[in-house]
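General statements about sequence and structure are easier to judge against a single worked case. For one protein, we set the task of working out the structure tokens from the amino acid sequence alone. The sequence in question and its structure tokens are set out directly beneath this paragraph.
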Amino acid sequence: MDAEAICYLSIQELATQLRARKLSSVEVTRCILERVHRRNPRLHAYLTVLEQPALQSATQADAEIAAGRWRGPLHGVPVAVKDLCFTKGVLTTCASRLLRDWKPDYNATVVERFEAAGAVLIGKLNLTEFAVAWYHPEMPVPLNPWDANLWPGASSSGSGIATSAGLCFASIGTDTGGSIRFPSAACGIVGLKPTWGRVSRHGVFPLGESLDHIGPMTRSVGDAALVLGVIAGRDEADDTSLAAPVEDYAAALERGVKGIRIGVDERYIAAAASSEVAAAVIDAVRVLERLGGTVVKVTLPDVEPDVEPGMAAWNTICAADAVAAHERTYPEKASEYGPGFRSFLELGATVRGQDYAKAHIIREGFTNRFQELFDGVDVVACPSMGTASLPATGMPADARGLTGANSLLHFTAPFNLSGNPTLSQPCGQSSSGPPPSLQLIGRHLGEATLIQTGAAFERATEWHKQRPSE
């Protein structure tokens, strides 16, 4: 097997090879590192590469597997984490000048759980500064592997790029308003945003604590299921983490969709999707229907009547939460932030208590009305992003243009407000660049149903096998 073929194996395939000792973790890790050294100088997916620690972890994994101490499907598998996940003694910059030299003295829970599963940490991945929409002017800007002129998604751009380009087998992303789904869609991969609290946020630098979700980004639904099974679950260090038992997500992969009720709101889709993306999503729903699913017409509630495309409530909550997260450094060190993120903090600092309270009432009303849909359906289908791709220069310059009339958050931010789990996956072929992306939304703690549905679609199609060219 050549090096490129190794780097594009699924985790399921790689785990079988490693456990049978047909491949060694050291061999695979060297393949990934060689690819990172060759491609990262152009793509800027990684901010920090942990070559020697990774090889040491791989050596340990090979010894344990040889001794019959297999820890599970991530044992010996090279992975990477977004550079706002704390790593003990390793730079954790949040892609900001403010933290350019910071090394935490403990690991994030997701990092600890990767280590406990025997995964090999390759490095820390690039992102927009503190996980909003803008890069700090002193940090390298990551490039979409499909086309450098296309947006790589925000904020987990490095996670999307590295996973898509075969620079790791899985990555961790965070999602406050779309930051797992945007780079997954923009880079043609799978992204799973779990229920809020399903994955511990301990040791992950917050953007908006009441909106932040942590989840896997992979090249297949099956791989997302395996990673979620490792990182999900109650964490005593995070009081907001959920105590509900972690399901066997891998067991859901083969269940098929017979009897699954798929909700579709064509008005909601048409409001912000290109004709290309809308057609791809409706075609995907028809595939699921042919596989035994039942399509149900639904009407999604508006977050805010008359202003829903701007998502004013989301903007108010996220900006205010961000100011709370940065109270030790803003405004005292305002000059060290990039202009884009600084403008977001400036916006948050203007939020009054009554504005925040009103936004939360709007949020709770939408959340309650949205949950009622699941009395009649099991999943809701819509796009992950309104277009298959965007120009790399398409983001607004500052916080004033982030929402307003901009419909970018139309298919994403509502489900951060509601806390529902979502699964994004390729669902067609674009005329240029990455494929359109299908988003499936589930009831709270409904990740297994999303995986069940997404895996059935994946088995019936070839869209997830598309890759960016070298």
The first strand starts at residue 46 and ends at 49.
